[in-house]
Amino acid sequence: MEALGIDFGSFLWYLVNFAILLALLQRFLYRPVLNAMHSRETRIRESIENAEQVKQQVARAQQDYEVRLNEARQEAARIVAQANERAQTSAQEIVAQARAEAERIQLEARQQAEQEREQLLRGLQAQLSNLVIQTASTVVGQELKGNGHDKLIQQSIADLGRL
Questions:
Q1: Rounded to the nearest 5 degrees, what angle is found at the Cα of 16, between the Cα atoms of 15 and 21?
Q2: Tally of structural domains, the chain
Q3: pLDDT tens-digit readout, 46-81
Q4: What is the rounded distance in angstroms from the CA atom of residue 88 to the CA atom of residue 149?
Q5: What is the residue range of 86's domain?
């Protein structure tokens, strides 16, 4: 090696120094750097896992929110349907009450018309009886001749027709 210009003693010392430097670097620099890198890798992995868990929790919360929103919409639709049904029922009840009231009023009007008709008939009967009495007194008071009787009957019928 001396032909190459390398001193074997120096080379041996360089080699020992290099081995000591490697051992020191291994012990005091490489292991701590490797441990720091390993702990950083672990923290990153945990952060990613936590982010995935948070993402899953957010997805579940979003699903729960959508389910609750759909339930709220269904409940609102059900309430609106019930309100519409109640309104229809109320409207039908009001119409039924109005019809019943109209029928009652019509019945009262018929009854009143019937009463007035009966009063009118009683009045007509009274007038007719007076007319009959008057006609009878006229017949009794007159001397009837052959067709005079017919003339009196025709006049009485005419008088009745005017009533």
A1: 95
A2: 1
A3: 999 999 999 999 999 999 999 999 999 999 999 999
A4: 75
A5: 2-162
Quote the pLDDT of residue 28.
86
Mean pLDDT across the chain, nearest whole number? Answer: 86
Instruction: Indicate if the alpha-carbon torsion angle 59, 64, 66, 67 is positive or negative.
Output: positive
- Cβ–Cβ < 8 Å for 152, 138: yes
In the block, which residue shows the tokens 């701590």? 32
Number of H helices, E strands in the chain: 3, 0
* pLDDT tens for each residue of 13-35: 999 999 999 998 888 888 888 89
Cα 46–chain centre separation = 50
Per-residue tokens: 34: 């490797």
Instruction: Please give the Cα distance from 54 to 56 (Å, whole number).
Output: 5
Angle at 130 between CA 128 and CA 136, to 5 degrees: 100
